[in-house]
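Re: Re: token formats

Sure, here are both.
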Amino acid sequence: MRRKPRRRYCRKTDKKWIGLIILLLGIAIVAVITLPYKAWIVIVGCMMIYIGYKLFMS
């Protein structure tokens, strides 16, 4: 009897997303250690303006 082919739970696209998340998490950890508090306020403010602009224009 033949066995059914097993499904791969971790597909290629899933690996890309997981890799991207791990990369971003690593960058964030390094940035938290090195950047001062005021720099984080500026970065978060710019991100919020960008995200708001993208939501408004879509």
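Second one below.
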Amino acid sequence: MRVLLVVLLVGCTSTRQLASTTDPRLRTGGHTAGFVVKTTTPWRERIDPSSVIQLRNASGAWTPQLWGRDLHVDGTGVWVEAPNVRPVRFADQIEITGAPDELVAALAAAQPTSAELHQTGDTVVLAAERGVLAAWIAAVSPGPKVHAIRVHTAEQGWRAPLYHSRLVDMDLLTTSTRLGWRWDEVAAIKVRNLSGGKTAGAIVGTAAVAVVVAPILLLASTAGGVKNYDGPTGRSSGPTLDGTLDTAGKLVDLAIEADRAHPRGTWAPRLAPAESLSATPLFSTGAQWRAVIRPTVSLDAGAASAGDSAGTGLVARVRLGDVFEIGGGVREVWAHDARGWLRSTTKVFQAGLHLPLDAGYRFALPLGFEASGGGHVAHDLRVPWGLRITSASGRYFVTAMPATPQWMRTTTQQTGRWAWNASAELGVSF
């Protein structure tokens, strides 16, 4: 199971570079579903809320990996939400109104050589490069109360003032803003998605390898016993998506020191300009939810190659991450045994994978496990697989399952039997 999980999460993705960085769909938000883009390869790729995206500048530096669901876009750039940001860390000017003489003197005494202090009456303006002002006011904090303090950033201008406060209050003030990258500086874009074809191949390949290798490993472990066990290694045994953005704080730290050389050529973000604070999410709320959980309902009908059973059913499932499916329902089954043909209502449980085969998510390989029983049917176990075709709208689908392995036993039979079950389903997703 551990090996299979590693294969699914790490080895079954595809990463491709977009053919163009000027696709207008990338600069327009509110998409209700993922969309297909051309790449530098003959294959197309998909961008949706679950895609992992990176941007590269002309110098060859890449951004951290970003989830499609987190992006906000406009004609200027691509941005992500950054909560709990201290504006003073981005400030190039701080204006203090109602500053007493002792505060002005303290500021002058602590003034960095690269900073400027301008005073007009009881108003003081501090000016310096980004990062210098925060250290400057921290040197004289907490300071006395003043009438007002406000911060200026090159990207967003003057922020709303903080009244009747001290310097320490401005230093600790946090707010939500956006950080990101300008389109006119983007030289390349690459996107990573789960590959349904690779995943299916990996499952088949892993199963084949397991059949051959498992007996050998079992014999080796039996011969060695537990005497060679040295305890846990201290390393994670599971796969990781190294570099994937997991906290906005990482972006904030990068943006504060945007000119510094970051590890592995990371392209640091910048503070979004004022007009980009209203940039819309790349994907609508509905699209983001459907990328996480998508309910489906389907009607199916099928018959066994043994000629002793047939049935129709209604099954409700939830599709998680557009890949994993789990659900249940009921099926009316006509089964034949020594008593003749008998009708039963069975309860059905299903779990499995929905593996997209193309960038448009029009074709997919369903692969799973099904267990049911009830009435005159003691057990009905299946491994359904086939080809699923989804409508252009993404809402309706039809699945053909021509050769599903089935093991079934009725309540009067001592042993069950294997057969192939041919079936089809018609479904709708929400």
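The first strand starts at residue 13 and ends at 17. Residues 2-83+185-222+265-283 form one domain.
- S.
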